[in-house]
């Protein structure tokens, strides 16, 4: 006589794999909560990324406008071989790296925070 197989659902969480009898509506509610949390995290990532993009864009646009309209200002030499254009370009490049580092650290901290599945 064959044995009857009961359906169970395996859930993978931070505690490991949990095998539990669960009806499909309960599973869909769980997926809905996780989906909502994922959408919330994604929205936060987009907000921070758009903010960083705005800051980076403003710095870069400022440099481009200075190059276009204030060539004499950027052409000032502080030392032989070093002009304001080089310094402003280095500031824009360094700011891009620093803003990327800030975003990566924030993203890692927020994704691995307690309660973030």
Description:
By secondary structure, this protein is of the alpha+beta class. The chain has three helices and four strands, in the order ββααββα. Strands 1-2 form a two-stranded antiparallel sheet. It has a two-stranded antiparallel ribbon with strand order 3-4. Strand 3 (77-79) and strand 4 form a beta hairpin. Helix 1 (24-69) runs antiparallel to helix 3 (84-111). It is elongated, with a radius of gyration of 26 Å.
- Alpha-carbon Rg, integer: 26 Å
List unreliable stretches of 5+ residues.
Answer: 1-11
Helicity range: 55-70%
Structural class estimated from helices and strands: alpha+beta
Please describe the biggest sheet, giving its number of strands, its sense, and whether it closes into a barrel: 2 strands, antiparallel
Side by side, the strands of the main sheet go 1-2
Kindly report how far apart the N and C termini lie. 43 Å
N-to-C order of helices and strands: EEHHEEH
Secondary structure tally: strands: 4
Give the helix tally: 3
Tell me what portion of residues adopts beta-strand conformation. 5-15%
| Total individual domains | 1
The average pLDDT score comes to 77
Overall geometry comes to: elongated
């Amino acid at each position: 006589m064959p044995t009857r197989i009961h359906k169970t659902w395996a859930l993978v969480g931070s505690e490991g794999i949990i095998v539990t009898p669960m009806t499909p509506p309960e599973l869909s509610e769980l997926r809905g909560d996780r989906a909502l949390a994922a959408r919330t995290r994604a929205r936060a990532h987009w907000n921070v990324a758009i903010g960083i993009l705005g800051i980076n864009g403003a710095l870069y646009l400022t440099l481009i406008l200075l190059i276009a309209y204030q060539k004499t200002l950027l052409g000032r030499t502080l030392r032989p071989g070093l002009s304001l254009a080089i310094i402003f370009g280095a500031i824009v490049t360094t700011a891009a790296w620093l803003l990327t580092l800030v975003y990566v650290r924030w993203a890692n901290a927020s994704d691995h925070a307690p309660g973030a599945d």
